[in-house]
Structures are given as C-alpha cells and as structure tokens.
Amino acid sequence: MRMRPHPSVFEFNKLLQVIAKMKQYPVALKLFDEMRQRAAPVDQYTMNILVNCCCVSKRVNIGFAVFGSFFKHGYDADVTTFNTLLKGLFLDGNVAEAEKLFKKILNLKLCEPDDVTILTAIDGLCKAGRVHTARDLLLLLEKTIYKPDVMAYNAVINGLCKTGMVDNALELKSRMIDKGISPDVVTYNSMIQGLCDFGRWKEVKKLFDEMVNHKISLDVVTFNVLVDSFCKEGNVKEAEDILEIMKQQNISPDIVTYNALIDGYCLQGKMDRAREVFDSITGSGLTPCIISYNSLINGYCRKGKVDKAWRLFLEASSKGLEHTTITYNTMIHGLLGEGRNADGWKLFNDMETRQVHPDLFTCNILLEDAKKLLHELPSKGLKPNIKIYTVILGSLCREGSVDEAKDLLVNMERSGCAPNSVTYNYIVQGLLKKKEVSKAIPFLEDMHKRGFYADASTSSLLINHMQGSNKHDILLE
C-alpha cells in the first residue's frame, strides 16, 4: 500500500481475489478501506469482489452500501454485481427483497439477466420453501426472451419432489421436454428420490428405463438414492445388490452409500454386519464421518450395548470429529435408558460446555427423566436439587409451556430450593419469546432484587423488545 506509484488496479484486484478465496472477507474489506484512503486505483471488478465478500459473509446491507458508493463514483453494475446481491439476499434470509430485486432486474432492465441470475432466483425461492412461487416464475420466464435452462427446471423439480409434489414434478419434466430441454441425471435423481419416498417402485423402474433409452448414465447419487430407500424399507439385501451393481459399473461407493448401509443394518439390529460395513470404509479409501458414528452409536444403544456405543462416542472425538446434537441425544438417551442417570446428566453438561445446542428431542429426553426423578426422590427421603429443577424449567420454557414452568418455580421455592440466575433467565426468555413482556417484568424485578443478571440470550431478547418502545422503564434497568 505504501508503494509509489501505486501498483496497477489489476494487481490490487488479484490480491483481493486471493484473500476472498481464502474466505478472509474482513481482511479484504479492510484492505479496500486502506486502498480508498490512499486513493489507490479501483474498477468495476474491485466492486464485484467486495460486494461478493459482503454477501457471502451475510452482510448484504454493506454489500449494497459498497455498490452504492461505486455507483456514485460512476462505476456501472453488471450482471455479476446483481447476481451477487441476489444471492446475498437469499443467504441472509431476505426472500421478499430478493424477489423484488429480481423483478426490478427484469422490469427496469437493470442488466441483462443470464442463466445464473435465473437459477439464483429460482433455486433461492425453492430453498426458502417458496416452491409454488418458483414454479410460477419459471412458467412466466418461458414466455419471455429469458428462457430457463435445464438447471432452473431441475431446481423446481427438486423442490417439488422434496415437498411431496412428485406428480407436479413429473408434469414439469414432460413440459421441459416439450420445450426442447433434455432432462439430465440431476433431473432423474430428484424424481427417483421423490418416487422412492412414496414407494412407487414401478415408476422408478420406468424412469430407469428412460435413462437407459436416452443414454443418461447413472451416477453415485442415483445409486445412493436406491441404497438409502431400500435400507429405510428394511430391504438391506437389495441395497447390497445395488452396491455390487455399482462396482460392476465402475462407480465407486462414497461415504453416503456406506452410511446408508450402516444405518440399514442398525435399524434391523444386525450390529455385527453394521460394524463390518463401518470397518470396510477405510479399506475403500474413505474416512468415516460423524454420521457413520451416529448410526453405529444409535444401533448399539437400541440393543442396550451402551458401553460399545460409549467407546465409539470417545473414538469419534479422538479422530477429530465433532459430536453433533444427534450424537449427544443418542448417547444421553442410551445412558438414561440403562439407568445410568448420572452419566447421562454429566454428558448433558459436557454438551452445554462444548456449546452443542440442544434441540427439542434433547429437552424431551431430559424432561422425562427429570420429572421421574422429581417424583421419585421425595419417596426416598431425598430432595430434588437446583440442577433437576433448572433442566425441567428450561425444557418447559423451550417447549413454550411457560405457565407450567412458573407453577414449578413456586413449588420449587416452597420445597426450600432457591432458584438461581439460570432459572430466572429461562423463565424470562420463555415469556419474551411469547411476547408477554408485562408478565416478564415481575421476574426481571425479582432478579434485580436478588442480584441476578440477564445472560446474553435474555439481553438480546430484551434489546429486541426495547427497540422502538419506551413503555417499559424496568427493561432499561
């Protein structure tokens, strides 16, 4: 940056591009800031790199600001700029604004949309669950000069199949053929998956025949769909036969293939065979992933072989794999199911320490066990402790059962167990999430009296409720 004269704009752009490819987006933006302060040369390509950095890091508002700044200085946006902004809006979850921008591109002719523009809009709508809107847009574009290509049709067909509208997908496939667009292996894979989900095997066979007639080669995804579907239906023998056909056709099974087989054998309780498939993964030049471990752990827990599951749980982390919520849920459920309550709760603590977020299934597992303990302990002359009460309260609040949680808080104090900061935070969060601010205020006042403080989650919810409102002075305290 201190060189005089400055390097060419080409050299600056090359450096920005390298930094962006390394996903060091804040560094790229900081470098641009220095470039701007030192009046270094920039061009339209600089703008596109920076807009992309903002959008992929989900800071699309800054991307628009960068675009506006360049536009004021006489740099025109091209189709790449608008494609990037469109992608950024979808990544940020701002689907309505993305849809508006796409319509402006078409109606105001902001740029000449290309295949990427159309695919970004249609695929973004599908992934946001707006499949009908995507299909309507596709049909609208058919009537314009901007004809959708095979990838745009594939996005809608895949969206339709994933939402169970397989017949609509089959109709759209026929329509694209009528328009002179040939389906490819991706088109067929989506429809085969959709039909398999409903057990429509005759139609699956028909699609395979079509692929053969049109000389469309099956790929590993096609075979994986079949292997997974057979395994889920309990037909693991047929899945193994598919694996042999893959090998005959020189299509190498990938980790998804092996995971489907492992899960299939685990669901049937055939743990020796599941373990054999698991062990054969490395011999195929692949490495087991956390999904491979999750399936085996689940299989062993279902068979009551919790010690074997636990060894796999430890092995996964020793191999550098990160336990997911599913891993923890399975192992906790297995431990509690075998009466190893202390180990189950200890693992839940570990889950929280490692910031693996519990889901509704975690809450249900713990809630069931905690409620059981709550009723059993008094008959044994023991009192439930703060940890048991807090877990039940947290689970109830996450489920939205805040009134039940409030009743439990009263019973808790009556039994001589004083609530702590975590207990209050759970209650306040539950009420704020239900937008019951007035009901949260007495608990906030009580927290204040007891010297407790709002945690990060509670503070975030409070800030959201305070924005644009001055009705609740207690929130400011």
Keywords for this entry:
0% strand, globular, 477 residues, 27 helices, mainly alpha
Question: What can you see in these coordinates?
Answer:
There is one protein chain. With 477 residues, this protein is mostly helical. 73% of the residues lie in helices and 0% in strands. The chain has 27 helices and no strands. The longest helix has 20 residues. The relative contact order is 0.03.
Oligomer: single chain
The profile of the biggest β sheet is:
none
How many DSSP H or I helices? 27
Strand segment count: 0
Radius of gyration: 28 Å
Instruction: List the secondary-structure elements in sequence, H or E.
Output: HHHHHHHHHHHHHHHHHHHHHHHHHHH
User: What portion of residues belong to β-strands?
Assistant: under 5%
- Ranges where pLDDT stays below 50 over 5 or more residues in a row are none
